[in-house]
Each structure stands twice: as C-alpha cells, then as structure tokens.
C-alpha cells in the first residue's frame, strides 16, 4: 500500500520507522508547508515496509513517501 | 394498385431505424472510442424504461433518415430518481455529433421543455459543435441562435447539468459553460473553445488534445468543469447523485430523505481538529462525520483544494457545506477558491439548499500573484453571492477566523446568519497573531532586551484576547458548542430556520456581479 503526500511541502519530522505497525489514519510523518504542520496519515492499517524520504527533503503532491504491508 | 406500405408500418420502420440494433457499423465505430452509444448512455442515466423520445423522427429535406438518425441528437423526457427530467445525448456517429439545423432545434426544444416542466436538463455532450456544412450559409447562420438566451433564462430555475462524454470542443463547451454542474471522463473527454487543429491553424500553437482540453487541464487546473471521473458509468452516477440532492426547480421543496439512524460518529469529532493552529488536519474528515453517512458529493474536489464545497444531507435534508481546508495552503482563500465558493453558493441559493460554513481561515492570499489573479474582485464576488442568498446560513468557527476571510465565510453577524457558532478552539481576530505582532508591535519588540521573548509574550497576551469565549461575551457569536454536539445543533437550527427569507433589496432590476 502506497502512502502518498497530498501536498507539496518539506518533510519536517518522520514519526514512525520501518517495521512499525500502524492503524488507518495514524501519522506516518509530518510535512511543513505555508508554516503549517501537515500530517501524512496511513491509508490503511499494517506494517511499514519502506520510508522513501528523509527529514528536510522536499516532496511533491502525490509522491509516494512510504509503503505499508497490510 | 397502391404499393405504398401501410402508414403504421412506415412509422414503425422509421422508428426501428433509429435504434442501435439497426446501425451495427455506427455502433462498432462508437465502441472503438467510447464505452456506450448515445442511446445506451440515456438508458443508463434514466430510470428503467422511462425515456420518451421527442423529435426522433426528424429528417432533413435533403437527406435520408438513415444517414442522420435523429439528426445526431437523441432527446426526450424521462425520469431520474423517480422525478421528471429532460435529457439529450449528442450522437457522435452522426456527422461527429455536430449540430445541424434540426439537431439544434431539438436542443432548443429540450431547453423549452425543461423550462415549462420545471424539470432538470441533462446534456450528454459528444460532438464537434456547429455542422459546418449547414453553417457556411448566411441565409441560415444570420439568424444566430436563441439557445443562449434560453439558457440564460433557464439558469437558476432548474438544475442544468452537462457530461462531456468525449469530443467537447466548441459548441458542447459553450453549452457546458451555461451549466451548473459539468462532469468529464478522464482520458476520454475533452473540452475548450477550439480543438488542437483549429488552435494550430489560428495561432500556430501546437498542443495535444488532453493537454489542451482533457480533465487534467479543465477540471483539475482551470476548474472549468466540476468533476473528473474514470468512466462513463461513473459520470452518469455522479449526475444522478447531484440531481438527487437538489429539488427539480427553484420553487419545489427540498428533496429530503429518511433520516439515518443515530450512530456514535460524533464522539470522535473533537480529536479531528488540533487546538494548535500550526497543525493541519483534513477538514473533509470533519465534514464526513458531520453529515449523513455516504450522503456527500464534493463539488470541484480536485480544483482549489484549499476550499472544500460539498452537497450532502443532514438528517435527510440537503445542505451545502463550504469549508476551508488547512491541509492546502493552510486554508488560505485564493482567487480559484473564491470562484469555486461563489458559484457553489449561487447554486445552493438558487435551489433552496441551506449553507453551512466551517471556518478555519488564516485570511486571503496576498502579494503580486494574488493581485494578478484579480483577487480583489474575486473575493468581492464570494461575498456578493452570499449577500444575495435567501437560504438559511449557519457559520461555525472551528479554529482560525481571521480578517476578511472570517467575514467572507459568513462569520459572526456579517450576513445575518441563522446561527453563528464557535468551537472552544476558535481564535477570532482581524489578522494572524504573528502578523499583528510583527506589524503593530514592531518597535516594542525591537527595543526589548530579548526581542524573541518579548514577541512571544505579546503573542500570548493577544491570544488571550481572541478566544471563543470573548467572542461570545460580545455577542459576536451566539454560542460556543462542543464539536460532538455540532451535528445535532445544525439539525435543530435547520428545522426551525425558514426555508427562504425575503431579500430586502431596493427596487432595482438587478445587482451587478463584481466579476
């Protein structure tokens, strides 16, 4: 399952790690855009298998930032 | 001996020739470029066996009926969601769906029928505009076309809906431009004033058809159409849902449905909106919990995402929700967002749908790009439409209610709201606290021995003065409500609010839209 960023912004804080178990809508990471903290939530529950970005990296709208195995 | 076939047989033959079954080659051609024929589209859109064709038997003096069945426009009366509607579908297999003399006359007849019946008009468009063979003759074309005059009169009387099924440059786009709700099929349909060939011939610009007029451009980027979907069936489903949420005409009562059973969705409401104004959240989740389950139809979900507009039901009653979206641009109001909201408010007001504003707005966009986008006038149109509204309107501040944005979002007493409410997390003031500190207290901060500390102190002092409680103390808002009580409070208010209020205008003929 792809975790996508809904907006363009900068990765501010990654609050999970590969191997973590998450439930739907849990925060995976927080982006920063327009001085706002914008959470990227899990599209569904499962285990995080990949985190594809690093803190301070810029991401585009629709970019896959992590993957979850249901 | 009379060799002429019996009259009944002649009519039956003419009718049979119109059906898809009698036109296998045309159907085969159509299936290579689309999912359905014009008649299949109508059958899927309308209630089973409810379509009664009008003008199916038209024939030009110079043509045979077999060459131009129905002159490329399948039109008639039908029922959608068990209510009357007038529908038409352009048939691309007849001269590329172009509008000939009789086809154009049928479109005009459809508009008149919708006007007289007080029934929605649905146009399934798939054609190339005016039939050039007919149009290059001043004896015919000097008449112009009364269609747009008719469309203008129809506007606001009944819902007018277009689906761009495939080809939609020129004429179909002009019709869609007069429609309240326009749906496109991604990767298949296109729209615009002129297609790539004419654009190249006229201007030299080379551009492919999807980049010029596909859903990515016309729905997501420009907002010309309201919704992009992945299939024809989905497009027709969206039209049915849209019409289900609106009355048949401006004087018909709201189509209320049976209220859903009570559930426990409200308990989680407070968790959705963090008190810290720096933290974004998805306001669509707030809306989804507030309204009846699965009742929402978001309008323009992919355009100007910093504002959310959605038709939905509250305890069975249709409502129009207007919300700022903190996830996008912090919920700031921009020109595209103003246009989106202004049009949505006009549609809701035309058809008696109450307005519910969910406010979390940092203000309007500023800077040279905002000025270039005519935000000064587009923001004016947003308040102009609300100023003309005759339907119930309720405002709820979820968090930030700043500046003109707060007023434009129906905050406080700005537009005589039936109820003006705030959540405990609200901050209501003329501008952002950080902005105010920088502008109004700059000298104070600069002179302080520890400027950063002084700045924080000033912001904290201001924060104490912009609370929901102080807003209620001055009667700016009627009350402060808990997030979990919001749904029930909205339902109660809409039960008592008069469906329409007289708009106390001076005796003028019309108002003048700012843009």
Adjacency order of strands in the biggest sheet of chain A: 1-8-6-3
CATH topology of the largest domain in chain B: 2-enoyl-CoA Hydratase, Chain A, domain 1
By CATH, the topology of chain A is OB fold (Dihydrolipoamide Acetyltransferase, E2P)
- Helix percent band of chain A: under 10%
Distance between the termini of chain B: 71 Å
Inertia-based shape of chain B: elongated
**Which residues of chain A form runs of ≥5 with pLDDT under 50?**
none
Helix content of chain B: 25-40%
Number of domains of chain B: 2
Q: CATH superfamily membership of the largest domain in chain B, which one?
A: 2-enoyl-CoA Hydratase, Chain A, domain 1
Q: Give the largest interface pair and sizes.
A: A-B, 9 and 10 residues
Description of the structure:
The complex is a heterodimer of chains A (70) and B (515). With 70 residues, chain A is mostly beta strands. Chain A has one domain: RNA polymerase II/Efflux pump adaptor protein, barrel-sandwich hybrid domain (OB fold (Dihydrolipoamide Acetyltransferase, E2P)), CATH 2.40.50. Chain A has no helices and 8 strands. In chain B, the strands form 2 sheets. In chain B, strands 8, 9, 10, 11, 12, 13, 14 and 15 form an 8-stranded mixed sheet that branches. In chain B, strands 1-2-3-4-5-6-7 form a 7-stranded mixed sheet, sandwiched between helices. The radius of gyration of chain B is 26 Å and the shape is elongated. The N and C termini of chain B lie far apart (71 Å). The model of chain B has no long low-confidence stretch (mean pLDDT 94). The A-B interface holds A 6-7, 33-39 and B 278-281, 326-330, 332.
Could you give the topology of this structure?
The complex is a heterodimer of chains A (70) and B (515).
Chain A (H helix, E strand, L loop, with lengths): L1 E3 L4 E6 L6 E2 L4 E7 L2 E6 L4 E6 L6 E2 L4 E6 L1
Chain B lengths: L6 H10 L7 H8 L6 H8 L6 E2 L19 E8 L2 E8 L10 H17 L3 E5 L6 H4 L2 H4 L5 H8 L5 E5 L6 H7 L3 E5 L10 H8 L5 H5 L1 H7 L5 E3 L2 H13 L38 H8 L6 E3 L7 E8 L2 E8 L10 H16 L4 E7 L6 H5 L2 H14 L4 E10 H6 L10 E4 L4 E3 L3 H8 L1 H6 L3 H13 L4 H6 L5 E2 L5 H11 L19
Helix pairs in contact in B: 4-7, 14-16, 18-20
